[in-house]
Design brief:
This protein starts with 5 loop residues before the first strand and ends in an 11-residue tail after the last helix. It is globular, with a radius of gyration of 17 Å. Helix content is about 35%, strand content about 15%. The chain has about 180 residues and is of the alpha/beta class.
Amino acid sequence: MAERENLYFDRIETPIGKLVIVGDAQGAMRVLSFDDDDRDWRAACERRLPGAALTARRDPFGHVSMLKAYFKGDMEALGRIPVVFSGTPFQNKVWKALRKIPIGTTTSYGALAKKIGEPKAVRAVGLANGSNPIGVVVPCHRVIGSDGSLTGYGGGLPRKKWLLDHEARHCAPQFRLEASA
């Protein structure tokens, strides 16, 4: 019989609601979920990590501190959080690509499909994006419709808009070379 994986969780209050963070014994974040209903995040853990033992631990591996820094305006904080994916090979490919979307920018599902070398898999990219177990840190909120519209987000469109606005507000302006007169 396989040994149960030990996972550690904590909650954080943010401007967009309570979040639950779940990390593994090696310090990688495995789940980040909105805590609108205690059963939702526990069910997500059970689906993704069946049989894992969940133990409450304050700020496991500094994840809570890094998230607080992000919400205070440190846009680089999310990139410092190690993650481990537990999806299909295709989902993992999409989720890795999400982490490469630059802060303060957005992309479309079609562009993301092309980026991962699967230009015809736009719907599959959308499904993988929608099943991202590590929201915010793996920034699925940066994916929008090809017409620039905000499209589905597991935490709700108001949260998605808030996250995009927050990142735009705190993103370092791009260096621009002005033409000389």
